[in-house]
Amino acid sequence: MIPSQMLKGMLEGCILEIINKQETYAYEISEKLSKYGFGEISEGTIYPIILRLQKNEMISSTLRDSNSGPKRKYYNLTSNGIEALIQFKSNWRELNNAVNQLLKGDNNNEKAM
Predict the structure, then answer these.
(1) Least packed by Cβ within 10 Å: which of 2, 48, 51, 69?
(2) Per the confidence metrics, is the pTM higher than 0.70?
(3) Cα 54 to Cα 31: distance, rounded to the nearest angstrom
(4) Is 85 in contact with 13 (CB distance < 8 Å)?
(5) Could you tell me which residues come within 8 angstroms of residue 56 by beta carbon, excluding any fewer than 6 positions away?
(6) Looking at residue 111, what is its pLDDT?
(7) What does the alpha-carbon distance between residue 77 and residue 60 come to, in Å, rounded to a whole number?
């Protein structure tokens, strides 16, 4: 299981990517994160992120009928969300590269462990 502190900074970008792949609702986002290997992430963790994304105009929502129960809010990316996702991916690649180099010991000034 990935420690929550490590997840904290990445979840927003990961949620944007899930919404980018397909219009979806909060519970489904939680399920998809679990299927991708993020572990069990509750809707209680996801909802504040979704609210922040809406406040920052990165996602929009549409109420739709549900086959089981009340209407659901389905989320879509806005142009701000697409820009934020592009930036997240760029930042992730840079961070991923730096961490991988560090862990591999690619820096000639460091002793390999």
Answers:
(1) 69
(2) yes
(3) 20
(4) yes
(5) 80, 84
(6) 56
(7) 6
The proportion of the chain whose per-residue pLDDT surpasses 70, expressed as a percent, equals 92
Q: Tell me the three-class secondary structure of the chain, residue by residue.
A: CCCHHHHHCCHHHHHHHHHHHCCECHHHHHHHHHHHHHCCCCHHHHHHHHHHHHHCCCEEEEEECCCCCCCEEEEEECHHHHHHHHHHHHHHHHHHHHHHHHHHCCCCCCCCC
Kindly give, in sequence order, each residue whose CB lies less than 8 Å from that of residue 49, ignoring residues fewer than 6 positions away: 11, 12, 15
Give the separation between CA 92 and CA 51, rounded to whole angstroms.
23
Task: Give the whole-number percent of the chain exceeding pLDDT 90.
Answer: 73
Cα-based angle 54, 59, 18 (whole degrees, multiple of 5)? 120
Which pLDDT tens digit goes with each residue over 51-85?
999 999 999 999 999 888 899 999 999 999 999 99
Rounded-to-integer distance, Cα 30 and Cα 46, Å: 7
